[in-house]
Specification:
The complex is a heterodimer of chains A (about 325) and B (about 260). By secondary structure, chain A is of the alpha/beta class. Chain A is about 25% helix and about 15% strand. Chain B has about 260 residues and is α/β, with parallel strands linked by helices. Chain B has eleven helices and ten strands. In chain B, about 45% of the residues are buried. Classes of the chains: A alpha/beta (about 325), B alpha/beta (about 260). At the A-B interface, helix 5 of A face helix 3, helix 5 and helix 6 of B. The complex binds adenosine-5'-triphosphate, magnesium ion and zinc ion (ZN). Adenosine-5'-triphosphate binds next to strand 2 and helix 2 of chain B.
Chain lengths: ~325, ~260
């Protein structure tokens, strides 16, 4: 049911070829930010136009696309991007991580381990990890070129000096293959260990900033830290109240206006899959049908709300 | 140790400059400057506004590329080095103290982070040790230990300048460039800073090139003096000799105008 007014996946072939060249260059130089000529997309920048363009350049008719926003398939952002590609590319879609061939994501890496053949496309607001302390683009480029990354540790130093620990809990900087320092987009640092050594291809697209970067399969990715303040992939000290998972990243959800709250997997597909297999959490008691995800109370477009659940506050660069 | 003893300790100059020339279009920045700087030596550069002092210093420190001439640091040709090498040198062996501390500090970063940056830039990865060294250096420039987490914007001008000095010296550089480090400060604050600088230079055995228009600064700190006019060096020699018995007419004018003040 492709809308005939558009080329396959909306972008013309010329543009897709240009983006593919940038992607290939990114894959050849893991973690390096490749400039590309970002196109106008029929959606606002905050909606991940960089990710959408990368996805458009990767899609083939046989693909099965999954789109998630903070782990959920059903937020407005995820739904409209999924619909966009259903209309413009006519590709199949899915909510199941294991069945998807291309996954576009904002702020999360799925809990279900990725496989060879899958492509994970991240929406990136600010690709430059050095930006917060060095606003000059000419200077940050030079720093990457000459591997002058002391400044990254200055940020972590400031974190510890101010909060007693590294409080950065989103967009936590990593070093790729011992060479480029990279911003993994505002995923929680809980997800950082999944960046490295993955069998899948990971692509990062920043639309407004016109940058693409990539992690080819089985790339070494190390989260920056200090010897005496090592990196930890922390999460809320709870189990999922719906499926009982002990090792998944959790959202804190307000359940009523009297202060009731629960912790649920942020990865809706993962949580639903566990419940379908009979796993139960604290609030999905005997005989009660597993309730649907209480998504209306999740706030969208704001990574900070989870910081309560995840312990430390964040200076997140989103 | 007298200067002669210091200079004869080693026959290798730390910095050797030959025929350095920098033009801005038709205008001369500095022209045909040559000198040697020995380890532990402090060289003062004086001259009126526009005489080329800052131009010379920035060429020496690698911030600008001269049009002609040679610079050898510790026997290595600086202008032939790759940029990576030169920038590495300026983070380890060299230091540059700007006249305006805002140009040499990160105003959005705490005092401790400012001092620690160079350590982290050369690979320090132990927070406790970095902080310990930063605290030690704040003490050495007479900044109270409890200001370590404050940002420089909360500091007075004199404190900012002392912080800039600590930030520069923490990695134990051998050669320090200073462009009017006491400019823009109150007279009493200047005196304290000069005192501090003199102590540090002596204790650490630093080699220093210091640009100033203040002959009092030169008399207090510099072993040797270079007088510039219209981009050229018109006289150089031991500081006391140049100041007490100036040979060049321009130097005579410079010295006498100060004495009249
Ligand atoms: N970026 C520039 N572009 C063009 N001309 C310049 C530039 N910088 C300096 N000059 C010129 O070069 C000459 C030397 O200037 P320089 O700043 O080195 O002098 P200075 O001795 O440091 O003076 P001051 O005591 O005022 O700081 C002057 O004629 C100046 O106008
Ligand atoms: Mg000057
Ligand atoms: Zn769950």
């Amino acid at each position: 049911m492709t809308d005939q007014a558009y080329n396959f996946a909306y972008l013309d072939e010329q543009t897709k070829r240009m983006i593919r060249r940038a992607i290939l260059k990114g894959i050849a130089v893991p973690g390096y930010q490749v400039p590309f000529a970002s196109r106008e997309m029929p959606m606002p920048y905050g909606w991940g136009t960089g990710g959408v363009q990368v996805t458009a350049a990767c899609l083939v008719p046989e693909d099965r696309l999954k789109v998630i926003d903070q782990g959920a398939d059903d937020t407005t952002n995820a739904v409209s991007i999924r619909r966009f590609f259903q209309r413009t590319a006519g590709v199949a879609t899915t909510e199941a991580t294991a069945e998807a061939t291309v996954i576009q994501t904002r702020h999360r890496i799925p809990e279900t381990p990725l496989k060879a053949g899958q492509i994970l496309v991240y929406q990136v607001p600010i690709p430059e990890p050095l930006r917060f302390l060095e606003p000059r683009e000419t200077e940050t480029r030079k720093m990457h070129e000459l591997e002058e990354y002391g400044l990254m540790h200055v940020k972590l130093y400031e974190d510890i000096a101010r909060h007693g620990q590294i409080a950065t809990s989103y967009a936590y900087p990593v070093k790729v293959e011992g060479r480029y320092v990279m911003d993994p987009s505002p995923i929680p640092k809980f997800d950082n260990p999944k960046l490295g050594n993955s069998p899948a291809i990971q692509l990062f697209g920043a639309g407004r900033e016109q940058r693409i970067y990539a992690l080819p399969p089985f790339t070494e990715v190390v989260s920056l830290d200090f010897d005496d303040h090592p990196f930890t992939a922390s999460k809320a000290p709870h189990d999922c109240d719906l499926c009982g998972a002990t090792d998944s990243y959790l959202d804190e959800v307000i359940t009523d206006d009297t202060g009731g709250r629960m912790f649920v997997c942020s990865d809706t597909d993962f949580c639903a899959g566990r419940r379908a297999k009979g796993h139960r959490g604290r609030l999905s008691g005997e005989g009660v049908a597993p309730s649907p995800h209480p998504s209306p109370t999740r706030r969208e477009g704001c990574a900070r709300h989870e910081s309560v659940a995840q312990g430390a506050g964040t200076e997140g660069a989103a | 140790m007298t200067l002669m003893e210091r200079m004869t300790m080693t026959d290798q100059p730390l910095l050797r400059v030959e025929g350095l020339t920098k033009r801005y279009g038709q205008r001369i920045g500095c022209a045909d400057v040559s000198f040697d700087l020995y380890p532990g030596e402090v060289l003062g550069i004086v001259g009126e506004s526009g005489s080329g002092k800052s131009t010379l210093l920035s060429c020496l420190a690698g911030h600008q590329r001269p049009d002609l001439g040679r610079i050898a640091y510790d026997g290595r040709d600086v202008l032939e080095m790759s940029e990576t090498e030169r920038r590495r040198l300026s983070r380890t062996d060299w230091a540059y103290v700007h006249q305006n501390p805002r140009d040499g500090l990160r105003m959005g970063v705490s005092a401790g982070g400012n001092v620690g940056e160079r350590l982290m830039a050369v690979g320090a990865r132990h927070y406790g040790e970095i902080r310990g060294k930063a605290a030690d250096w704040l003490g050495r420039v007479e900044i109270a230990a409890d200001r370590i987490d404050d940002r420089p914007s909360a500091f007075s001008g004199g404190m900012q300048q002392r912080l800039q000095i600590a930030r520069n010296l923490v990695t134990g550089p051998r050669l320090v460039f200073m462009d009017e480090p006491t400019g823009g400060l109150d007279v009493s604050v200047q005196a304290r800073l000069l005192d501090l600088l003199r102590g540090l230079v002596r204790d650490l055995g630093l080699s220093v090139i210091i640009v100033t228009h203040d002959l009092a600064v030169v008399r207090l700190l510099a072993h040797r003096l270079m007088v510039m006019k219209s981009g050229r060096v018109v006289e150089q020699g031991l500081t006391d000799q140049v100041l007490d018995d100036p040979q060049h007419a321009y130097t005579q004018l410079l010295v006498s105008s100060v004495l009249q003040v």
